[in-house]
Sequence to fold (365 residues):
Amino acid sequence: MRTVHVNLGDRSYDIHIGHDLPVGASLAGEEGLRALVVSDGNVGPLHGERCETLLQAQGLTTSRLDVPAGEASKDMAFMQRIYDAALEAGLDRLSVIVALGGGMVGDLAGFAAATFLRGVRLIQVPTTLLSMVDSSVGGKTAVNLPQGKNLVGAFYQPVEVAADLATLSTLPEREYVSGLAEVVKYGVIWDAELFRRMEESVDGLLSRDATVLEDVVARCCEIKAEVVAMDEREAGVRAVLNYGHTLGHALEKELAYSGCLHGEAVSVGMVYAGELSVKEKGFPEDERDRVAGLLKRLGLPVGVRDLGTTPAWEKLRGAMAADKKTRGRIPRFVLAERLGSVAFGCAVDDDLLKEAFAVIGAGAS
Ligand code: GLY
Fold:
């Protein structure tokens, strides 16, 4: 097992990464605690009982609510369902809400924990690669409104994260590979050595090798912990975590109907950011090619056409301008200077944005 500490003063916590981990170890010794496990219709039946047993082993009384799997559950109606379940289970201010699942469950249960009784403790038990390396760490929680994604939320740190790699064995292949895009991202933005290790471990990554996974997931969590400790509320450097996400979010929005996954959109977005980076920041062309090469070897899309459909540039440009992270409708990009080092908050000339899109529009080469 590896442990990564997130250093946030009195809101610090540990992330445990490994196989067959305990859950609720950070609460051991406290008497009479209650826990509500929130999961979804896919993960709950697979891992819910074990999670409750592990919590009971730490002396907690548990109950569980599974919401339907899928982003549609991340809304205020299901938030009310969680509040109902929390009241029915008799949760008090010392109780804990446990988010067992991927990013949707983490966001939904996290916001419930941030708000129920003005805040109860939160434990994140991520079961997807994406949520292990990204959404379960750092305290972002949110629900969607009919008007848009993640429009209501809170920064609310968990007291513990237990990333049990054993749960990845039940993750569908496409979802697992999609999570690898975020892993590649950490190499590009922060750690050229991690990137190199990934290039050498493609087979181990694809076969979900336990040692390779523990190494890369722990390193990604270390990087995220470091970034979040520097800038918890995204006033500055935390934005580097959005490498590839400016176009990625726009693609997700425009291609929602075709079921494009987050990591797939981010993969194409990173190839796009690589093109912009060569022009704007002198990102070496061979490093740009290494990033696209690694993504491709991992089975990720590297061009818009690989996503199965080609949205019009004007639509994507409009979606990028409407992103909630823009200022004055000018999209901001994270751009690479070299592997392991990026600049954030970069505005890019419109002609160049379109030119780079034409390059990646073609799809895999
Ligand atoms: N997913 C980006 C962040 O947590 O800031």
Observations:
- Residues 134, 138, 140, 234, 238, 241 surround glycine (CB under 6 Å).
- The mean pLDDT is 95.
- DSSP finds 13 helices and eleven strands in the chain.
- Residues 7 and 274 are 31 Å apart (CA to CA).
